[in-house]
Design brief:
Number of domains of chain A: 2
Protein name (chains A, B, C, D): Translin
Oligomer: homotetramer
Structural class of chain A: mainly alpha
Main location (chains A, B, C, D): cytoplasm
GO molecular function (chains A, B, C, D): RNA binding; sequence-specific DNA binding; single-stranded DNA binding
Low-confidence stretches of chain A: 1-9, 231-240
CATH topology of the largest domain in chain A: Methane Monooxygenase Hydroxylase, Chain G, domain 1
CATH superfamily of the largest domain in chain A: Translin, domain 1
CATH architecture of the largest domain in chain A: Up-down Bundle
Largest sheet of chain A: none
GO biological process, one term (chains A, B, C, D): RNA metabolic process
Number of strands of chain A: 0
Family (chains A, B, C, D): Belongs to the translin family.
Largest interface: A-B, 55 and 53 residues
Number of helices of chain A: 10
Amino acid sequence: MADAGDSSSSSSSSSMEKQFEGFLQQLEQSGNLRDRIRAVAAEIESSTRLMHSCLLLVHQSRPIPEVAARAEAQIDVLKGLYRRLAEILLELPGQYYRYHGDWRTETQTAISLIAFLHWLQTENLLEHSEVEQKLGLDSSEFGLDIEDYLIGICFMSNELPRYVVNQVTTGDYDCPRKVLAFLTDLHASFRMLNLRNDFLRKKFDGMKYDLRRVEEVYYDVKIRGLAPTGDSTGDQGTQA
Amino acid sequence: MADAGDSSSSSSSSSMEKQFEGFLQQLEQSGNLRDRIRAVAAEIESSTRLMHSCLLLVHQSRPIPEVAARAEAQIDVLKGLYRRLAEILLELPGQYYRYHGDWRTETQTAISLIAFLHWLQTENLLEHSEVEQKLGLDSSEFGLDIEDYLIGICFMSNELPRYVVNQVTTGDYDCPRKVLAFLTDLHASFRMLNLRNDFLRKKFDGMKYDLRRVEEVYYDVKIRGLAPTGDSTGDQGTQA
Amino acid sequence: MADAGDSSSSSSSSSMEKQFEGFLQQLEQSGNLRDRIRAVAAEIESSTRLMHSCLLLVHQSRPIPEVAARAEAQIDVLKGLYRRLAEILLELPGQYYRYHGDWRTETQTAISLIAFLHWLQTENLLEHSEVEQKLGLDSSEFGLDIEDYLIGICFMSNELPRYVVNQVTTGDYDCPRKVLAFLTDLHASFRMLNLRNDFLRKKFDGMKYDLRRVEEVYYDVKIRGLAPTGDSTGDQGTQA
Amino acid sequence: MADAGDSSSSSSSSSMEKQFEGFLQQLEQSGNLRDRIRAVAAEIESSTRLMHSCLLLVHQSRPIPEVAARAEAQIDVLKGLYRRLAEILLELPGQYYRYHGDWRTETQTAISLIAFLHWLQTENLLEHSEVEQKLGLDSSEFGLDIEDYLIGICFMSNELPRYVVNQVTTGDYDCPRKVLAFLTDLHASFRMLNLRNDFLRKKFDGMKYDLRRVEEVYYDVKIRGLAPTGDSTGDQGTQA
């Protein structure tokens, strides 16, 4: 291969080398950026894990204000982490979506927990602009992707049947009605969207099982006359 | 569920609805954008298919200028298509990477063909800046992603063993030496890059099989004294 | 190849042969050791199968003392088998983890059964040091790997929903409350651990389904006023 | 679930918590150890990549002493890395095989390169004890697993056919005979071993293809009378 090797010293070869030296630098640069992003994403994951542990206590009927206080501390931690993420990405304008995959799963989980906490406190849906505000995100610079928000809301919905079951167990018979009203509205709102065959669509398709389970629990308390409203037609009513 | 439904008319519910109306618009907008991008990507795919058909004729030892003329016509078509793609994406600054997945496979194929044609004409590697120029891409607005370029070059490498085999069949015994020199340099250049465990790394790992196959063909012509250099001592030599 | 073969008689070749004779001995030795370990592991598997058969009778509401007596007989068998395993491994110090894969699955199953039996008898979690004691394991020589213990506990958790369902069927309405209290504590304890993305993490992730199932059963007995506490207001209450 | 939650404050529950706090520490400890091991393994991988790049130049018929000098520099780097690995593992005696999977692939690659270099320099097989010496490994503390050594040797064998082909191409017609003699002995030595159905057996099974390819190249040079020994019976001989 001696003669083949000879051409290695040609100018075209050194031009090739020069080009790849440039690539090396650029790949190192984007690799380092990705490492920094992943480090922050790992901290977001860690913070959401703690927040989740706090929120799980509502299933053991711990008072919401107590649970909320501990969970909200993590929102402040998350706010700081998203500020760091935004700072990293502002270094390279227009590359938000290039690295989006490196933090989106963690963000969807964060949204689901913050929205669940918000529902516990207000019985309302946490809106997109409200999450951005809570996390200190600025849409013009580093915003919250709408699909990530919607997927997070679907994850929150998955938590509701369990909450209803545990609330009824501890004697809160009005909870199913409230959750059902909320979930019915939420499901109807999602139905307005013309979702494509993607991950969000699949997650939304799962929401109907949450809805059905809550309907069943509501049915159980109504049929037994346990629901607090006077207009019940359950067991108690028939015996009255 | 009558009482549950009642709460739908509450203000919180209408606020939810209003938010989802906004999402509907935004999802429609990004969905339409994606449809337009995919339509252009389909045309790019169609054009590269035609270009590939032209280039395949080199395996039947048709003269390169004839093959090149027909293939180059497609480069002009591609240039027009990338202009359309750039125009669509310039409507939404900073979203290049959001939709990148919708045209990157087609682009990698286009790069591989244009680079193969360029090698046939010049025996040199088509550089990243040269492809951008040929396709009328402007890095500051809508450029060619480096990884897409590099993956395209790996695909081009996959075409070379077949070309060498067919050239030797038609009596071009100097082709293996030239391709081997080029591929050896290219492989060494790629090795400079510190590739991560991703798609590009996997494609590059395949390049060594191209290199070995070309080495084997070069071996075949050398050992038979068919290589055009004077120093051969193979079959021809023994018969002299 | 005659001349090639000639060099086989060189000194380098006989040195190569000598080395491989050493390898042959060492591979035979470790192969034999592995065979002996696997033979004991097969007996452990056989003993846990018998123990499992005994324990399954609790799902048919056979009295726990009767079930326990027969299951405990197998713990003695297991103790003897682990002594044999320890003796084999003490022949080659520092190779515990070399052959660990050959008995760990069987050990995890054994842990799950012994811990389930212990829970039936005491309503407490069998601790790591207690299992070691029961099986005659000495941590300084041949101990129980912590991950194997934890995986075994996850397997035990998988058995609890079925137990609760069958107990309620036979009229033991207090069982869900007790299992739920235990499983809630266990789940919270596992959450303290910062589990990596490995097999143990995956098994633990499954524990939440056990927890939910038990919550559902507890819900069922509570809403029907079947739970033994006086504050129920379910079906029984309305009929009172 | 209030009553269920009550038991959380029981002594059994706090004992459970205490046990898991111990696990948390031990899992953190082994997790940190694994991170440190993986960091060194990544550096070993990086060093072998550089060494491989150097060694690849022999396929372009660069003189062996020049190639060797650059490759040997990496052996010193590797020696330092294995010292670090040994130091980490000596902290926890008897856990070599617990973390073995975290560095074995990198080690097998290192062995294959060092053994190939050694063959280029001496035409002999690098023995197990010689590699340990080169890498500063001490069998009594942190040695080289025999299977890793043997797998590395199989990988080295995979490199030989390509080397032979490229050497013949550049006119070194004696190379096939020498490689064939070596590979024949090596293959025969491996055949002595009673390999089980595992990874090593699979790798060894692949060695016969290397042997066949080298036999074919040797046949090619012999039949064409290109082999340097006088006893050839190829093309030249028949025409003499």
